[in-house]
Amino acid sequence: MKDYFFELKMKVRDYECDAQGIVNNANYQHYMEHTRHEFILYRGIRFSELHEQGIDPVVARIALEYKSPLKGGDEFISKLNVRKEGIRYVFEQDIYRAEDERLCVKAVVECVCVIKGRLGTHEMFDKILE
């Protein structure tokens, strides 16, 4: 398993599963978004404070690759790395089932900052890479 900047352990709730008893595909995006928000908070940045200053990090693109399903009650670890490419922040996010460390989902999430209505960069958001 590769090294990651940040990881967050969570548990699948039954209502997140579909009729087949596996996590509905859209919920993986919720898990990853929650992980990004917790990572940013861990780095000392609050999204509400950014928004009050007119800085809004938003998702521009997501590519997901499903590997192995999670089921109700499964504990999992959501992990991420991040790098900056131009004005984009590229998050590599992987979710592993905790029990056997099996890779469940791989994703690349590209985010940009909208600052007072325009694309740009801001030193406050850049500090996540320090």
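The record above closes out task 2.4. Task 2.5 opens with a second protein, given below.
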Amino acid sequence: MSARNLTQILTQTVDKLSEPQSLKGLFHQHQDGKPLPSGKALEEIVDLSRAILFPGYYGKSLIHLNTIKYRIGVNMDKLNKLLVEQILAGLCFDVKSDEDSCSPDDQERAEAMTQDLLKAFPDIRARLATDVQAAYNGDPAATSYAEIISCYPVIKALTNYRIAHELHKIGVPLIPRMITEMAHSETGIDIHPGAEIGRYFTIDHGTGVVIGATCVIGDNVKLYQGVTLGAKSFPLDGQGNPIKGIPRHPVLEDNVVVYANATILGRIRIGEGCIVGANVWVTEDMEPNTRKYKKN
């Protein structure tokens, strides 16, 4: 191919890729100094959060009780600055339009939202402690809490989820979903930040688990790999568009166990103490303390 032909092909391709019609819904025009949230910065936020919540397991490993307050303090200061910056970037980006949505009050909003999240860290750690215990108690192969925290993908996924859920509750846009999708890529566990998950929750093995946005999960619930807590086909409005914001995912009450590759769909209730067997398809309520298995 001649250089002239190559130049012509590149020029035509660039022209087509720059046409406004082809960019509809796929292009965001930035204003100076107001970029999208940074994936790299969010990775650092997750790393710092894990180091704060599980000191000695993440971040600097050379840490002991004499220096832990200093280490956590340094990490919290870094985390505060990064969060304000990234939350502000999220507030300045409106995914519903092609225009910048920043307002003069957003800097103060970002700082207030960051403070709300940081104040929640003690409770996030307390909840994660119950998740570690549930993973340890539920796996005979586990030798220690240290092994659970260091090696089990569920703890990484739940750390991201519990941080993202707090951000979701206080109204931070975009960033909660980015944080849970980071864990999805890392662990294969897909938890929407809008889901509500109680204490002592665990997922054995983890790969392929999907937990939808409006799921409600009680205490002492255990899932195995490949479980889907999803939605059935959703209703459409008069123009044929999906109706957003309605509860469409399952409710799992306390002490439920769902085995590998089970699929539970729709706004149904799985009663307390139920057991859902492997490879089962569930689309109707289950009464408390009942079991559903796939028959041979």
